[in-house]
Amino acid sequence: MNNKPPIHTKFYYGWVIVFVAALSVFFSGPGQTYSNSIFIDYYIEDFGFSRSTVSGLYSAATLVAGITLFTVGRMVDRFGQRVMMIGVGTGLALALFWNSAITAPVMMFVGFFLIRLLGQGSMTLVPNTLVPQWFIKKRGRALSVMAVGTFASSALFPPLNAWLIESFGWRSAWVILGVSILVLFIPVTVWLVRNQPKDVGALPDGTPHKKPGEEEISGEISEVSWTLKQAMQTRTFWFILFCVMVPALVNTAVTFHVVSIMDMKGLGVGIAATILTVMAVVGFPTTFLTGYLADRFSIHYILAITFFGHILSLVLLFFTSSTLLAFSFAVVWGAVNGFERIALNIVWPNYFGRTHLGSIKGLAQTVMVIGSALGPLPFGIFYDLFGGYQEAILAILIFPVTAVILALLSPKPDPLEYGVTGEE
């Protein structure tokens, strides 16, 4: 068996894996709401569908995709990240080709389902299970670097899609995006990705191998691996699972309605767009700070800080009545997003190990996608009932408040207490 890396680097090969993982979350873009939302108005114009019809198809497809995503996690454990990353990437490209040919609501539902399952779900799930295989002590920093792909994707795809549609039409835009995945992402994945450090003769974090006769190097560490069934026996698992759902629900609800919220507060569309831009700008460097903190402090404290930030951001949003308060909300919201991108991904491998991470993270990703599908609904209901969003903002505060409490009650579980002894 060849246990040499495909390319020789003077640094630890795990950082090459991080680069490909960042590329994967970048190319999840065509399945993300910030990207494919650019196509919605063109669907409405060309097909004559109502906005509620398209929105309903999108929400339903996202919900079904979230439920299905759990099986992808199990497949990651069975087939490995390399095979799954190649398969998912190829599948996403084909899904984009499908979207270029839609002519009816059923085809639109299938197209939405495929890009949500393969793009939003799987293209982020697989790299988030791959990077933790290569890093233990430096896991927070590695995930921070991977997050660069997320911010680059959210910044690039909306204007890129708008330009492609204006220049070539929305059908050709989908085709071009699909071809770009096949040409740019798939070959790099086939060439460079390996599932674990041992596949290239290395140890996690680039720890040197001990020489014959030497004592074990103090930096060489291992993790206890839990199966999904074992993890589900702990109180911590269910508390953290709730915590994972909260940002997806709250962020999607606020993002989906932010233009309308700002309009109701008399601040207009321009302020809403500025909020989204500031959020991304602040969130990007915050991920590096979070990665640094996550490598040094217990992750349940980082989670508690994250949800306290959610509370603060919602309070600011409630009281926003000026450009200054709107800007303050955007800064806090961006910082919170930077925290959660690392904390919610690192908690699973840190608590439950790497061997069954696909199944565990797959269930968490399923809950997250379902939360994002359901998030906008309460705001819409409250708007119809009260003619505004203030009551909805107050009501949704219950989720981050509960998450703060549950995070503080969720230190890393003791494997011996649950009879878990398997080491990686």
UniProtKB/TrEMBL annotation:
Keyword Transmembrane helix tagged: yes
SUPFAM superfamilies in the cross-refs: MFS general substrate transporter
Chief subcellular location: membrane
Subcellular location: Cell membrane
PANTHER family per record: BLL3089 PROTEIN, MONOCARBOXYLATE TRANSPORTER
Keywords: Membrane, Transmembrane, Transmembrane helix, Transport
Transmembrane segments: 12-29, 49-71, 142-160, 172-193, 237-259, 271-294, 301-319, 325-348, 360-383, 389-409
PROSITE patterns for the chain: MFS
Domain of life from the UniProt record: Bacteria
Annotated source species: Salimicrobium humidisoli
Name under which the protein is recorded: MFS transporter
Residue stretches making up the Major facilitator superfamily (MFS) profile domain: 17-414
One Pfam family here: MFS_1
